[in-house]
Specification:
By secondary structure, the protein is α/β, with parallel strands linked by helices. The chain has helices at 13-24, 39-47, 61-71, 85-90, 92-114, 150-169, 191-203, 224-236, 253-263, 292-298, 306-322; strands spanning 4-8, 28-33, 52-55, 75-78, 121-127, 173-178, 181-182, 210-212, 218-219, 222-223, 243-245, 251-252, 272-274. The protein is built from 11 helices and 13 strands. The strands form 4 sheets. A 7-stranded parallel sheet has the order 3-2-1-4-5-6-11, with helices on both faces. Helix 2 links the parallel strand 2 and strand 3 (52-55).
Length: 334
């Protein structure tokens, strides 16, 4: 019988790549989707016709128990979250509820169903944002946390809770501490996609400038398609353990802008405008992964280097906009 996976956050970037990967690996894939008329569900269905949808919300404990009871999954991937860091200052309580308490509700749903005999492995989407103001570089599984946003704090709660359920109840529950990963399906609010869309719009004469915040922040950017393979590998391991996933290379936002505009054949300095209002109340200045444990124990390696990733996103956005696609309407997904 096919293994069955339940993915929260199915309408997001990672949900789409993970679903593709699991379907290609022979899984029956279910996605948890919220809302009575969520337009992102139809976008997801267009791309992933074989994914079955179960209604539920990370804010609603009963809906998660019902979803787990209905799907009877072998594996649950908890990717659902408020994931945009600036929004976590604007709606800190909601972020705590969805991104933090949502993990508790999902773990409880699994614990309740496991007590009736189910055996379910659990993956939690932890984040390099938990490291925040870093105490050492590169960051590995033993690096201490100093989160710098309500989002990072909520993720740290979910991370420790996942460890605690593993230790308290013997659950196969793991966290992937994933560094930034991007793709042509990345939300338009995140800096890589904002820059690739900005360069594409300027190239096509649809915009004349791109406004950005802190150009000096450094991130370890990889390709989302590579990172979902790591999520799956973590749940196939003999023992439940947490892993850092990243490329081990770091670049500034300035270098990202330069690479994107170069890929579009443009000089970035003519178009990029600094905007103080886009700076964050507290910034994470530098992130760089040490993914050695994942390489040695899981055999995981990233395959798409930074310049290739940026060029892929810029080319995709030039194609999308040339064909009349509207990324702000969430209508199209390459
Ligand atoms: P996205 O922002 O693209 O997707 C977030 C998903 O969460 C959407 O499907 C959204 O669904 C869902 N969601 C939001 N609120 C709820 C809710 N109340 N109940 C159920 N689902 C909800 O994120 P990514 O795909 O980029 O990231 C996936 C996960 O990995 C997130 O948890 C993120 O925090 C984490 N992460 C991401 C990294 C990255 O670089 N991409 C790095 C490290 C961690 P809806 O359509 O209903 O809004
Ligand atoms: P991040 O990603 O906060 O690292 O979280 P984001 O792309 O939003 O920001 C990266 C860096 O770019 C700087 N920046 C800007 N960012 C945005 N969004 N818009 C701008 O105009 C801009 N100008 C400069 C930011 O200050 C920041 O330093 C992502 C999310 O996917 C999280 O969910 C995930 O956990 C982490 O990555 C790992």
């Amino acid at each position: 019988m096919a293994r069955r996976a339940l993915i929260t956050g199915i309408t997001g970037q990672d949900g789409s790549y993970l679903a593709e990967h699991l379907l290609a690996s022979g899984y029956e894939v279910w996605g948890l989707a919220r809302g009575q008329a969520n337009p992102r569900v139809s976008r997801m269905r267009k791309l992933l016709a074989d994914v079955q949808v179960v209604r539920g919300d990370l804010l609603d404990q009963g809906s998660l128990i019902s979803a787990v009871e209905k799907v009877q999954p072998d594996e649950v991937y908890n990717l659902g979250a408020i994931s945009f860091v600036p929004m976590s200052w604007e709606q800190a309580e909601l972020t705590a509820e969805v991104t933090g308490m949502g993990v508790l509700r999902m773990l409880e749903a699994i614990r309740v169903c496991s007590s009736r005999g189910a055996s379910i492995r659990f993956y939690q989407a932890s984040s390099s944002e938990m490291f925040g103001q870093v105490s050492e570089t590169p960051q590995n599984e033993r690096t201490s946390f100093h989160p710098r946003s309500p989002y990072g704090v909520a993720k740290a709660y979910g991370h420790f809770l996942t460890q605690n359920y593993r230790e308290s109840y013997g659950m196969f529950a793991v966290s992937g501490i994933l560094f930034n990963h991007e793709s042509p399906r990345r939300g338009a609010e995140f800096v890589t996609r904002k820059v690739s869309l900005g360069a594409a719009r300027i190239k096509l004469g649809l915009a004349s400038e791109l406004r950005l915040g802190n150009l000096e922040a450094r991130r370890d950017w990889g390709f989302a398609g590579d990172y979902v393979r790591a999520m799956h590998l973590m749940l196939q391991a003999d023992t439940p353990e947490d892993y850092v996933i990243g490329t081990g290379r770091t670049h500034s936002v300035r270098e990202l802008v330069e690479a994107a505009f170069t890929a579009a054949g443009l000089d970035w300095e003519k178009y990029v405008v600094g905007d103080q209002s886009l700076h964050r109340p507290a910034e994470v200045d530098l992130l760089c992964a040490d993914p050695k444990k994942a390489r040695v124990q899981l055999g995981w390696e990233p395959t798409v280097p930074f310049e290739e990733l940026v060029a892929m996103m810029v080319e995709s956005d030039i194609r999308l906009l040339s064909n009349g696609g509207d990324p702000d309407q969430d209508s199209s997904w390459p």
